[in-house]
Automatic annotation (TrEMBL):
This is Response regulator transcription factor. The modification 4-aspartylphosphate is found at residue 74. It comes from Marilutibacter alkalisoli. Residues 23-139 form the Response regulatory domain. The keyword Flavoprotein does not apply. GO terms for biological process: phosphorelay signal transduction system; regulation of DNA-templated transcription. CDD domains: LuxR_C_like, REC_NarL-like. Keywords: DNA-binding, Phosphoprotein, Transcription, Transcription regulation. Pfam families: GerE (PF00196), Response_reg (PF00072). Residues 164-229 form the HTH luxR-type domain. One of its GO terms (molecular function) is DNA binding.
Length: 232
């Protein structure tokens, strides 16, 4: 289990004149939230917000373009949800650390984020100082989990038999792409066009997704996505 810093340890000194700033990308589908987070983080004196993104795919694209030290990402975003963003950034930019900042407090979300490669997890009602502490911790190569996330990880470590089944985590990268496009309402033909594959191949991917998730049709797939917080 990743190490957990003590929440509330917020007395970390801010920047010195010659200190290299922590380069941060902020991803959230609400403009006001993004701008508020950018102002809050940059007020710390040692953070430079190098990019903002309003959906999951844009987050991955801008991260690859800017190579931030830390990505602060929401969980529920269009095009790619936060879990998939974490997974892709882990593969494409292993040096970039990802902090999930979300309204979701349930253990299942914490465990999915950690399995995908997140180095930190905070809920959105955390104190501003704790968010700064988390970003600084991740940039220093440590992990940072808020109290609820730390409790979920400790519970998992103590009771591994309670492991939450994660059929979504068993989907391949291509199947997850198909999953999100179908959940967003795209037809099989539209999925094929967007992914530049044949309609038959898209149909096969869709069938495997339904089978792995244990759902029978698109309506049940959408309900699954909503229930798991994988879709706005």
């Amino acid at each position: 289990m990743p190490a957990t810093d003590t929440p509330g340890n917020t007395n970390t000194p801010t920047s010195t004149p010659n200190r290299v700033p922590i380069r941060v990308l902020i991803a959230d589908d609400h403009t006001l939230v993004r701008e508020s987070l950018a102002s809050l983080l940059q007020a710390g004196g040692d953070v430079q917000v190098v990019a903002q993104a309003s959906d999951g795919l844009e987050t991955v694209e801008k991260a690859i373009a800017t190579h931030p030290d830390v990505v602060v990402t929401d969980m529920s975003m269009s095009r790619l949800n936060g879990i998939e963003v974490v997974r892709r950034l882990r593969e494409a930019l292993p040096q970039t650390k990802v902090l999930v900042l979300t309204m979701h407090q349930e253990d299942e979300y914490v465990l999915q984020a950690v399995r995908a490669g997140a180095s930190g997890y905070l809920v959105k009602d955390s104190a501003a100082a704790e968010l700064l502490a988390a970003v600084r911790s991740l940039q220093a190569g440590k992990s940072y989990f808020g109290p609820q996330a730390a409790r979920a990880l400790a519970e998992q470590l103590q009771h591994p038999e309670r492991l939450v089944d994660d059929p979504y985590g068993r989907l391949t990268a291509r199947e997850r792409e198909v999953f999100h496009l179908v959940a967003e309402g795209h037809t099989t033909k539209e999925v094929a066009q967007r992914l530049d594959i044949s309609t038959k191949t898209a149909e096969n991917h869709r069938a495997r997704v339904l089978d792995k998730l244990g759902v029978r049709n698109t309506a049940e797939l959408v309900r699954y996505a909503l229930r798991k917080g994988l879709l706005d």
